Amino acid sequence: MIVGQFVLETLSLLLVSFLATYAVMPWLINALRKAEITGRDVHKIDVREIPTMGGIGLFVGFATGMTLSALLGLDYRLLFAIFLAATLAVLGGLVDDLFQLSKAALVVLTFLVAVPVVAFRAGSTLVYLTPFGPSDLGWVFWIIVPFGFAFLMNGVNIYAGFNGLEAGLGFVSSTSLAICALIYGSIESAVALFALSGGLLAFLRWNWNPARIFPGGSGTFLIGAVLASGILAGSIKVVGIIALFPYVLNFVLRARDRFVWSVGKTLPDGLLVSPNVTAMWALFMHKSPEKEQIVVERCILIQLIFGIIAIGYAYYFVNFIHLS
Prior knowledge:
324 residues, mainly alpha, two-stranded antiparallel ribbon, two-stranded antiparallel sheet
């Protein structure tokens, strides 16, 4: 059941993280531009250098929300594990933004981000597969956890490259999973996921087409780490797989070309086209040119559909358990 007394509190943290990120973004954009920490917007006909490392602004909102969650009297062990993993993710992303780490180094880095969750045993080793009941994976579960982090962090990182895409997908994913966590009664997970979604909602104000800032590796890694931590700490593993299934599909498509970075081709009229279907976004611009914003909106719509399915499954699962 939804834990009613915590619904308002967790939603208030979404608002807090939204306001914190919203407040810091104008300053951050100007600071990054002055420092010449920028990247080219490859989907615009004219050359535009856009500030990157927007993950710093996201982290400000997330950290503010997580800090104020102490007022709710929740499990500090779970909250600290999630917060520490998120911090490591942002730091690793910043290093990648500045020094362009190799693919192998990025994979190793994402494995290391999982250490706090494993060390604090943040989560349950039980996996509920309705109607088969719970299965306890025991120590095997903690071996799998780093692989989950590596997949999600890199999965978010490679499902990117368009104005508003990473933040839009992250907002839908974190919000739907936060609702699932509330249904399950996993309040700590809901707190972290709502804190992320609030920051992402504010970030979209400047990241939506035409973008004024990019999330960078610091942003994509933060999104992936919080999603992974929220799923594990909240014991919402099955709904997590459902809600994030588009990331799995994108991973499979990207694997077809061995993860060679590509964001399609920009035509002289500004429309985008992709000769091959090697990513989710390519499904909407394969051979038939399309506007960047339409491509992004369709990707987000698919993410929303899977998020709604996950919420429906969570509601069914909780009621199934109570009726059993």
